[in-house]
Write a structure and sequence with these properties.
Blueprint lengths: L17 E4 L7 H13 L7 E4 L6 H12 L4 E4 L5 H7 L2 E4 L3 H10 L3 E3 L8 H11 L4 E2 L9 H10 L17 H15 L9
Parallel strand pairs: 1-2, 1-4, 2-3, 4-5, 5-6
Helix pairs in contact: 1-2, 1-6
């Protein structure tokens, strides 16, 4: 899908950008730090980044990341946008952790995506991201447990805009759930025997 919107005041770029989102942000600090290190240590990988930390990230971390981002000409950082889908629609690629809602939006907007899933306290994101990468829907980098490999993230960010879109790997009608239900229900209704009145 796509959205036609007016200029979003929280969208500061007049050129293609990569959207980095952590969902709620409660455990997204490792991802944000990793992306910031790329721009700090190696410079822009080719496109600016708009980072959305999420409203539940610790305020101390938000303040630290905001200060770091303010020093970088190709990075903007915001805490929250009630219409994140507008930003995703305009982005040329998405970096995320792989929560269910964000993953569905990536598929819906058909955006090249890099997932960096958490592994604690649950493996849900890792399972989803691993399977999606196997299917060719996204690329995945494991969440670093120690010092992050800045060069590896820089390479992934540089390659992201030209990466395959989910639609390149999705089978036909992969996202047509509502239409499929309509077809199936219509078929079943058409096969149903007419209801007879009692006593006839």
């Amino acid at each position: 899908r796509s959205i036609t919107t007016a200029w979003n005041p929280l969208d500061p770029f007049d050129r293609p950008f990569i959207l980095v989102t952590t969902g709620g942000g409660g455990d997204g600090d490792v991802l944000v730090d990793w992306v910031l290190r790329v721009y700090e240590e190696l410079g822009s990988p080719g496109h600016p980044a708009l980072i959305v930390t999420g409203p539940f990230m610790q305020s101390e971390l938000q303040a630290e990341f905001s200060q770091r981002a303010a020093e970088l000409p190709d990075v903007e950082l915001i805490t929250f946008d009630a219409h994140l889908e507008n930003l995703m629609d305009r982005a040329i690629g998405v970096v995320a952790m792989g929560g269910y809602n964000t993953f569905c939006e990536i598929l819906s907007f058909d955006k090249p995506a890099l997932l960096v899933p958490r592994v604690e306290p649950r493996l849900e994101q890792m399972i989803r991201a691993s399977r999606a990468e196997e299917m060719g829907l996204v690329r995945m980098l494991p969440m670093p447990s120690g010092d992050p490999d800045v060069a590896r993230m820089a390479e992934a960010l540089a390659a992201l805009p030209a990466a395959a879109r989910p639609s390149d790997a999705m089978p036909p009608q992969f996202l047509d759930g509502l239409q499929a239900i309509d077809r199936l229900a219509g078929g079943l209704i058409g096969q149903a025997e007419p209801v007879r009145a009692v006593g006839t």
